[in-house]
Design brief:
alpha/beta, Rossmann fold, six-stranded parallel sheet, 12 strands, 41% helix
Length: 426
């Protein structure tokens, strides 16, 4: 790709969502990923502003598990970034408090130096963080401005301050987000339904890797062959396993960027220990880029004497880009993804059935609703009994059905669709 086909790619180093959304687009970027809250030559006051915001969110997310007080504090924060009820459909253009506070920071100078620098080469500006889109427009970025939406429904903060005159264009993951943006006043000509950008290494040039992964998955998740697969455009290749009765169910459990819900992994590992030792289950524990979560998982496996068992793996790297690569590699052989309904909800587009942990925050409530609506996600039952209900779900075919629904109804061509809208060529 020559320079004229490059983009400026801007995210935020806050949790995983914003960076995970841009990771598949790195090959098309001029400088790699630029983080609005930690870019080169960022002023001290600006970096401190973002650092305090990040610390506050992570503390509140983890604090939520403290009875009564934790829930109360989290509810206050969640109200600040709430998503209004969708019905009745109505005009929701009024600016929210969250939006006003972020825009006040932009007017104070957040992002100004970054936009001035990028304006020296005004190629398409693509961001997964709405505040970066605010800054680009406020400081008169000369090129096109695109914003990738990271959730299945969104608060008012994602839309421009003054939508009727804004030139920000949106890449929406689904129809609901398009409708919501229009309720916030965004012109429909500035909204493109592309799907969430999923990793190309899990799809393949002609979707061959995606089909192979789903084929393996359906063999594992439908051992009793109770599912009608006739509505698929392909049939799982039974030759992928020489003895399908010995297939191992591969489960990946992921915690969020704040490290919340890590304790669930302990329950899962303990209850599935016998299955792991018997070679019936492989368990991947996703610590992300957090050393404290990695240490927690390491100590857990030592306690269970599973630290040297190849059927248990911890996915961790201190660098987020390398963590994403390792995580995507892990997903190639994953049969079931167990996670709270964060941006990982969209990874169901890889044909992954999702066991849904308790949502944290308003946006995750709506992500869960989307997963349930398309039939790709199933609410977790009590982890204390996972050794019972999980295998009932495999034997009755419901996880295999969720995998098929995920493939049929969740978009997996997000990168291709985004490239088409920006007119990028390989």
């Amino acid at each position: 790709m020559n320079n004229s086909n490059k983009i400026h790619l801007v995210a935020a180093d806050m949790g995983y969502g914003h960076q995970r959304a841009v990771y598949p687009l790195i090959p098309f970027s001029q400088e790699g990923v630029i983080n609005l809250n930690d870019y080169r030559n960022i002023e001290d006051w600006e970096k401190k502003y973002w650092l305090n915001s990040k610390k506050a969110y992570e503390k509140i997310s983890y604090f939520k598990k403290i009875p009564l007080l934790g829930d109360l504090v989290f509810q206050v924060m969640d109200y600040f970034q709430r998503i209004e009820k969708f019905y009745p459909q109505r005009n929701l253009r009024a600016q929210s408090l969250q939006q006003k506070l972020f825009f006040k920071a932009v007017k104070k100078g957040v992002g100004r130096k970054l936009i001035e620098k990028l304006n020296l080469n005004p190629i398409p500006f693509v961001t997964s963080f709405f505040v970066a889109a605010y800054a680009a427009e406020y400081y008169n970025y000369k090129g096109d401005i695109y914003c990738i939406v990271c959730d299945a429904d969104i608060s008012r903060a994602w839309a421009p301050i003054n939508p009727e005159i804004s030139r920000i264009k949106y890449f929406a993951p689904n129809q609901r987000v398009k409708q919501r943006l229009m309720m916030y006043g965004v012109d429909k000509k500035n909204i493109f339904i592309t799907g969430f950008p999923l990793p190309l290494e899990n799809i393949g040039d002609d979707e061959e890797k995606l089909i192979e992964s789903i084929s393996r998955r359906l063999i594992n998740l439908d051992p009793l062959k109770v599912i009608d697969k006739s509505n698929l455009t392909f049939q799982p290749n039974q030759d992928l396993y020489t003895n399908e009765n010995n297939a191992i169910v591969n489960i990946t459990f992921a915690v969020g960027g704040a490290g919340a819900q890590r304790e669930i992994a302990g329950v899962i590992a303990r209850k599935l220990q016998q299955k792991i030792e018997a070679g019936k289950v492989k368990l991947n524990l996703v610590a992300g880029s957090r050393l404290d979560v990695y240490d927690y998982f390491s100590n857990l496996l030592k306690e269970l004497k599973l630290q040297n068992n190849p059927a248990v793996e911890i996915i961790y790297h201190p660098q987020k880009a390398e963590y994403f690569r390792l995580f995507n590699l892990c997903l190639e052989n994953t049969d079931i993804l167990w996670t709270k309904p964060s941006e990982l909800s969209f990874y169901t587009g890889l044909g992954l059935p999702i066991i849904i942990s308790e949502p944290l925050g308003s946006q995750e409530v709506f992500n869960r609703e989307w997963l349930l609506t398309i039939g790709a996600g199933i609410d977790s039952l009590k982890p204390e009994y996972v050794d019972e209900w999980l295998f009932d779900w495999i034997n009755d075919g419901r996880l295999a059905r969720a995998s098929i629904n995920a493939y049929l109804y969740a978009e997996h061509r997000g990168v291709k669709n985004i490239k088409k809208q920006i007119l990028l060529n390989d």
